[in-house]
Amino acid sequence: MIDIHSHLAYYKIYSASYLRGMIQNPETTTPRLQGFLNAFLGDKDGHRHLMQMDTAGIDRSVLLIIDSSIGMEPPELDIEDIYRLHSAVQKKHPDRFIVFAGVDPRRKNCYELFVKGIEFYGFRGLKLYPPMGFAMDHPSLENIYEYCQRHRLPVLIHTGDSLDILDKNFSKVKNAIRVAERYPGIPFILAHAGYQLKEPGMSELLGYPNVYFDIAGIQVLLGQKDPVAFDHLDKETLIQFSRKMVFGTDWPLFNLMTPISEHIIHIECLLKKNGLSEEQVKNVFHSDHLIYK
């Protein structure tokens, strides 16, 4: 089983404003916030994450770096230290963790930073977070996309909702059409789009062979009394979408209190209830083709 969408649960790599938004209380006092961070986001070496993976039967997880230093107040660690930390975790557990380099294209050395992440630190893909304030086709991403296309590196882009303090106009899923068309050699993974199939642009993106939709965040449907994810789709369209869906946990966001293994059981049930077959659900949880090149 592959988790295509997770993060290192360590508070020093995130902006304080991002963390306050994550716990949905921008007025949280410093002592209270620090207590939360120490309790839930102190997994610097990924040990707690690994235990969750083992229990849930996850073979490998992709750790996504978020470069938040430009769009928000800087985290405690600078981007170079964040890269080094993720590299250390990947080197310690090379058979369990894969890292995607996060970069903000407004950073002056964004291309050099990304290439260093791939060629020096051994990262295996690109993570973009547009609601920080940049377009998916920002001019400074052109060289980075071309590099990814030459080396067949996957690019995972945040789409859909984000924190209230960020700009969701940049993360509309339809914005991905331009880059998917321009760079057919890049496997694009649109984060969170796999359970929001009514969004404008989804039907067009379904036709691109290089586009996939991760279901990280589908956990928000689990608390609903009668969750419905794909009720508007005919059977044939649902089958087509199921071939594009890939599993992601968004660890640790949805697992501060609930173990990953419990969520997987409920997600499998939700997908089957909404029309996916046993084989289709199995394929969602095995996105090996995106990380083994």
UniProtKB/TrEMBL annotation:
Ranges of residues in domain Amidohydrolase-related: 83-286
GO MF annotations in UniProt: carboxy-lyase activity; hydrolase activity
Alphabetized SUPFAM superfamilies for the sequence: Metallo-dependent hydrolases
CDD domains attached to this UniProt entry: metallo-dependent_hydrolases
GO cellular component, one term: cytoplasm
Keyword list, A-Z: Lyase
Gene3D superfamilies xref list: Metal-dependent hydrolases (3.20.20.140)
GO BP field: secondary metabolic process
Descriptive protein name: Amidohydrolase-related domain-containing protein
